[in-house]
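Researcher: Before we compare anything, I want clean individual predictions. No alignment, no superposition, just each chain on its own. First chain goes here; please echo the sequence and then give the structure tokens.
Model: Echoing the first chain and its structure:
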Amino acid sequence: MKKLFFIIILLFFTASILGSNYNIRRTDNFSSDEEMFHNRWTNSMRGDSLNCTVVGRTLFGASHNVFIKDTIAYSCHGFSLLIINISDPNNPILIGFYDMGDWAYGVYVKDTIAYVANGDDGLRLINVSNPTSPTEIGHYDTGGYARGVYVKDTIAYVADCDDGLRLIDISDPANLTEIGFYDTGDLAFGVYVKDTIAYVADNWAGLRLINVSDPTNPTEIGHYDTGGYARGVYVKDTIAYVADYGDGLRLINISDPTNPTEIGHYDTGGYARGVYVKDTIAYVADYGAGLRLINVSDPSNPTEIGFYDTGGYAEGVYVKDTIEYVANGDAGLRLINVSDPTSPTEIGFYDTGDWAEGVYVKDTIAYVADEDDGLRLINVSNPTSPTEIGFYDTGDLAFGVYVKDTIAYVADCSDGLRLINVANPTSPTEIGFYDTGGYAQGVYVQDSIAYVADYNDGLRLINVSDPTSPTEIGFYDTGSYAYDVYVKDTVAYVADYNDGLRLINVSNPTSPTEIGFYDTGDEAWGVYVKDTIAYVADGGDGLRLINVANPTSPTEIGFYDTGGEAWGVYVKDTIVYVADGGDGLYIIHYYGNTGIKENKNKNSSNVYNISVKMQDGLRIDYSIERTKNISINIYNIIGQKLYCNNDIKSPGQYSVRWNGNTGVYFVKIDIDKYRYTKKVIIIK
């Protein structure tokens, strides 16, 4: 979490900025580290998407809770509900997910509904009858901060943090109502119900046993102090299994509910948040250490038998050929095969030692900016077995890296720009240095100029024609905190935290001037420019696509809410790879266009009477009143054009048929300056 500590320190005297940009629910229920992380990630969300769709996901976020039904584990990670096949407990496989919008903390599955404790968003009911495509069917705002849930008969018992235990009638999933309530005393994080007793994990107050035989009037009958911070609980036979943040898994004998006693313990390695028990295995959601599978056949001696790493914190991303290289925080460098972007798979991993912030790949070497550990050079010629071949300690915190020819340019926080000779990658050496004055975060090199995003010191232009003696030739104050920069032709595009996307004319590098600006809405962390689109990683607002064909008047043409906090972005062909710090890797297809007015809401009753039907494959009907230029294109989910029909049509009615296979497709119809776009699903 070094990046977060760094941000907190630098913004210590700017509380007003934080206050105006965050919509969070502050409580006293977290330790200092967790409180900082919680506040950093619970900012308001943008919404859904425009002209964008997710085609793949991997390296999901932090682990909070888990529920097992048959051979499927429903796990709360970051802002998502993950659905994992555990038929082979030694080899768990992800098969589905649902973006919850806020932190997914607790889950219980009954019949075909997953009941999710969803933080500020209360209780969410998700239909999981098709686990590969879950959908929401009901919602209840519990009033507090929903952290845990258990369902018995027609009642959902919600652990609602400082609002205690809430009893919700779910007999009609579309019309939920509260029927009872009990103040547990501290912060209710988890709940399990057996017979007429609700077992509540109540933070530092430990395990509370609540009699709910009369759900309109619950009362406490027993209590056990677990020693740490009780966050999750599961009851099987006469044992309560408690996920105890900091103290791991605690096994409590509750045969006498008025006098519970501990009989076993297992340290899960991180911070145990949630637990589920099936047969003789306890599945523990361990914040920071993933999903742990613990054998509890002997409750006095639990042992670990399996593990699923849910990933670290995706910070930076670079794509080369069919491999996505992810700088994944404390989880190091991850290599993801994206040859099929709808099914990304990890093929390699290297622990860089500290906190991987940025990555650049050239030839067969991945150059990783690894904060305190400086620049790491990783040989990726065999992507299934990456190995370190070189290292250079840059002195401060390496945040960004760009490689040109035989020089690696490192944005090294308070140490500025470091120029590292990597001609011999086994022995990198520093050949030049320039103190940028602020806190260097990102760097881009074009021709003989290094453009440095220098945090509160804006954009610095450094002449590196003589790499042994770099000198500043230009400077522009971007207004806020410059985090990243991308240069195309004579424009530098700066991701400027509070101030969004700044377009700086650098045709005269000694006198850069701003020519355009777009307020992206949240916190611009990263930027990548391709053709006439600037792709901005915009924190809690996800991915923003800005048309910069006219740099003096940039306009938004698409967006996708990534669920957590978008930090890094890379674009290849029609696919956008977004590193989302709290919610892993998103692979997004942009199916819009620039320069053409689009109206997705037009239907068969408007303009050209366009109708798209799934009838014997795909049927497109349309009519025109005057001679027009017509273009009809059909793309698959990864952006490949499968059908193209360009022609000049006379007035009349027309029908086009296309016999595609089962799958998801995008139809784009251009009639002069009018565009119609539709996503279709063909099932045969």
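Researcher: Okay. Second chain, same rules.
Model: Second chain and its structure:
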Amino acid sequence: MARGRFSWKLFLGTALLTTLVWSALVWLIVRQVEALYRDDITRQLVAYTELLRQEFGDRLDLVHAAELDAQTKQIGAIRAAGIRVTLIAPDGTVLADSDADPSQLESHRDRPEVIQALASGTGQSTRWSHSVNREMKYVALRVGSADRPSGIVRVSMAIPTIGARTEASRRFIWTVTAVAVLAIIAWAVGLAYLWSGPLARITAAARSLSEGDLSARADVSGSSELAALARALNQMRAHLAAQIQTIDRQRRTLQSLLEQLNEGVVVGGADGRVVMMNPAAIRLLDLPCEPTDGCTGRAVEECIPQHGLQRMLLIKPESGGAAADASLHESRLDVDGRSGRMSLLARAADIVLPAPESTGAAPAAGRLLVVTDITELNRTLQMRTDFVANASHELRTPLSAILAAIETMQKMNLAREAEAAGQFLDMIDRQATRLEALVADLLDLSRVESPAVPFESATLYLPQTVQELHERFAEVLQAKQLAWRADLPPECTRLNASPHLLRLILDNLVDNAIKFTDPGGSIRVSCRCTPQEITIEVADSGCGIPGDEQERVFERFYQVERARSGTGSPKSSQRGTGLGLSIVRHAVAAMNGTVGLTSQPGQGTRVAVTIPRGPSVLEAGKV
């Protein structure tokens, strides 16, 4: 039985207790059997004594002593039951004895059974006999009346003889006892095995749970208390597993959120050490920390070099959890990172950090620092400021020219200076036209930049769209003697897109191409496509754009040198608003497309716009 100490204790305890109880019962049974047998022997002795009294009652005297002695010896020789017969006179003289010479025996007047028989008629006793040197059972009967007794008839039997007669019963009982003890041992072994098996499985499951193995189960069937304990342990395991899964899921969710945050998060403890830091904070602050440990456990001064951020994270012990400088809740700073100089906004707040449950300590104070990259926001704000300034300048220039022309005309004698007045009117017309174009471009740019403005899509037939585009610029093309060419492959004839946005894109691209292409040049509109997207390219043979300025031409109001923008004579009438390519960029972005520009000074410019073809075109099978 390869079991633990509990199994042995259970086995030994059960076996010992059962054996003791059984032994006590057997002892009582043996005692009771012997007592019953002794009582039966006593009743037999009494009956036998009564027969002898009837046989010898009328001859109990010294006259018949020799005769009586001879008969008693004959009786003793005939019976093999170990019975001794003694005939006693009233005065205690032994008249006859089956086992001894009466003349050699002393007076039996003082024998307990004789005294009882003379007094009550019957006497019994169990005592040691000096005449035969053994323990005897005596039964005596009086012959005659109490006042005139004739004698005493006594029958005795040796106690070993009685024991010998009960030996078979005792042997049988103790044999049964031995078999019962073996059965008890087997029963105790089986009981120990039956009980210790479930307990061993429950113990193993509990030990596995304590070691963190939540897959362990206590497989105990039935409806006993051990089975109920096993089921309770399994329920606790399932509950713990669910709780740990929930905690682990929440931990992984929090960790994932912190890792995906674009804002840097730093938590400082009351001891001046970093409690937590996410990868974004390491990246934004350009810290020499590994993203896996996040400087956890290191001192704030050691981990974060920016003095202002240190002051925002540190806590004065005497302040009860307040920041070292309570006024530092927000700060702006510039950091030189791997990707260049960044503008950061840092905000700090007081928090309460939970204490470990094992310590029983109270929650501790801490500081939370959130760092946000506002580089793009600053750039956007600067662009907005520049845009307002540029727009104001661009609007003021034609307005100033118009006002100056009107003021001059007001002082002129129109009858005598009609020719000069006509020149001023031409200038007013040109500036008003430029002002109108500028306002229209500003409105178009505002609309394509606004995310709240919807642009409905429709299936467009590109040959018709390009034909309409040519018709809108036919007069200008003819005036500048520019060649027009359209290359549209058969597979690129349909497109699902916003008609308004596509018209803005093509009009601005063709308008720019016409403005900056000398007479005799050419304008070409071409397409190439895949099943998913289509690319429309507008190319000219104009003056081109220098390489160092090609990235900036999509900025608002940005124009290349005056020769390219047409601000000097004789191209002053061709000067644009500086918003065309910016409108193109935002319109393409609104259509989830891309725009690219390639140019060589003196050889021309090509602008390619790539936009998705749209699901309706693909589903229709009209590619």
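Researcher: What stands out in the second chain?
Model: DSSP finds 16 helices and 17 strands in the chain. Additionally, Confidence is low (pLDDT under 50) at residues 318-327, 562-574, 616-623.
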